[in-house]
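Example record

The entry below shows one chain as it appears in the dataset: sequence first, then C-alpha cells.
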Amino acid sequence: MPKFPYPVYFYVPEWTYARYDGDTRPASGDEPWPGFTIGIHIWTTKTALYFTSVPNVHLTSTLPDHGVIIAHNDAGLRGHPNPDRVFFINVVADREAKAEADLNIVQNQVSLTAPNSLFIPHWTQHGITPRAPERGEELKTLSYKGNPQNLDSRFLSESFRTELKNLGIDFLVETDPATWSDYSYVDAFLAVRPGDVDLNTKPATKLQNCWEAGVIPLLGSEPAYEELRQGEYDFLLTPDPSDVIYALRRLRENPAEIGRFLTAGRQRRAAFNDDTILAAWRDMLERHAFPGLALKRHGSPVHQAWLYHRYPARLMAHNAISHVRIKAGAWKRRFL
C-alpha cells in the first residue's frame, strides 16, 4: 500500500505487554499470540499489524507528538499535550467515550451516543478451524468457548446438562484459550451473558465467529446481534435454558433446518472477514482522520470552527448509511 498523507500511530503502552513477557511479540495480526484474547491488543496491536504494508503506520509504546494517534480506552490516554498537531482516535470498546478524543470508535450501533462516534466492527477471531464438513446435519455437540464468568450461570447447572444429555447432546464448556479457535467438532455454539452485564456495549464477535466457523449460533438477546440479523436463520435467540432445549429439540426433529442455518452462516461470513474490516479502518482514516488532521494543522480558525460544528452531523450520516448497508448485507469493499 502507498504511504498515507499523515503518519498513523497505534499507541499501546509498554505495561500492557508485561503479562506476555515469556512470549515473542507478534509480527503479524494473524499469529496465535496470547495477547490477541485481550481487548486492547485485539483493537490496536492486531489492527496495526494488519497495516504493516503501509510505510508510515506504526505500532508504538511511546506517545507521538504529531499525526493520527489511535489508542484503546484502557491505554489511559486523556487527550494530548499538543492537540493541534494530532488527531486522537479513542477505541471505546465496552467503556465510555472520551470527550477529549477527536473521534470515538465503538463496536456496535447502539453505542453511537457521543456526537463524534463511529462504528467499526470488532475483528472476527483469526485462525478458526471450521466445523468438519462430514458432520453434515449432525447435532451432537454444543460448545461454549470463553471465560466462564461470561456465561450465564444457569447454563452451568447439572439439570441443564442432564436435559441436553437426554437429547443426545454433549455440552462442552471450554475455558482454555488454546481451544477457542477449534470448531471442527462443534455443531452449535452457546453464548448468553449473565444478566448483570451491560449488553449495550458488547460487540457481535461471538456471532461473527459462529458464521466463520460454520456452526449454529444460540445467543442471548444483545443489541449487537439484533443489528446484524437479516433473516430467521442467522441465529437462534435463546436467552433461557428452556429456550436452548426447545431450539435443539426442534432442530433434532427437523434436520433440514440445520442445513438452513449453516447456509445462512456461509452467506454472512464474508461481510466480516479480515479484508472487509481492514477496509472499514482505512475508510475511517481517509474520510475522517486525515481531513480532520489537515484542518487542525492548516485550516483557518473560522474554517476549523465551521468544520467541527458540522463534524457530528457528518458522522451521524456516515453511521446511518453504514447501518442500512449492514442490514442489507451490501457493504463489501467500503464502509460508507
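Notes for this example: The longest helix spans residues 301-328. DSSP finds eight helices and eleven strands in the chain.
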